[in-house]
Predict the structure.
Amino acid sequence: MSKDLPQPQQSEEVDLGQLFKLIGNAFDKLFRFIESIFTKFFLAFVWLVFFVKKHILKLVIAGVVGVVLGVVLEKTSEPVYKSYITVKQNYDTGENLYNAISYYNDLVKQEDIGTLKEALGIKSDEAASISDFEIESVISENQKLKEFDDYLQTLDTSLAKTVVYKDFLKNLKDYSHQYQQITIKAKERKNFKTVFNKIISNIDSNTYFKREQTKDLSELKEQAAAISKSLIKSDTLLAVYQKAIVKSAESNNDFQAKITIDNKGNESSTKEFELYAKDLELRQDLVEIERKIANKEHIIEITSSKQDSGTIDDKEEFFGIWVSPKIYYALILTILTFIVLLGLNFVKFLERYKNRI
């Protein structure tokens, strides 16, 4: 029986050897797979370089034609002017504002000059010259982070831990940001100011926002009046306390003057610095309320604007980058030529296997 005992150990050694061999083969296959991928990428890069080298003259010609086309269009096309304003929303007017801009754009696309003229309060020729309306939020990444932090402060601690910043941004609407930029493009440059003012006026005259403004202003003014009355009482109380201090000093008494104040049956002694602190707090509250009143006096207001006459819009957007028409058309024609040549080369490649099918 003792001779049979080592046999399981030999079996285990064999199993471990096979296991290590399998692991080694798996890593070997993985490295070969990664190597094959890099090899294919390298071969594709080499093929692309030789492909471009072969057709470099055609691509250069396409780029030159694009530059010439850009110059011709720039010289012969009617100039388009653009101007923009940045507005501050003191109420939740964003959705209404975006809908209004979308509506004006639809009228422009439909060439409904009559309705656009009435909506903006401008002449027919001025309405006909407008080619586009745009609106976008004006907000930095730091401001987004601040909004996210402010939002978390409104949530319960346990719930706030489950909120992710990316999800917050995904659910955040562009029109909800306080600052928005409105851009107008037109073939004439004399009516920008009138149109901008009319857009703001249309939002300001909204019945719902007017009612909300009236309620807010009424509430804030009542708060300001109440604080003003409290300040008068605080000043009176402080004056009385100061007189008591003076009399105490004149009589050379070695005690601290105290004033008992009746507050709903509860008596408490108030020191001079406490009165000053309370007075300062009330004045700070009054300043904040007056600032809120000033903000609420306008439902939406213009904070900055481009020149009223606008500037020439001579740039084209290419993958998020604004470039001149010459560069834009040169890039477009070069890329199109490259795609066509690539397609023709692919067709030739397929024809090689035509007879094998």
Observations:
- Residues 24 and 104 are 68 Å apart (CA to CA).
- The chain has a mean pLDDT of 82.
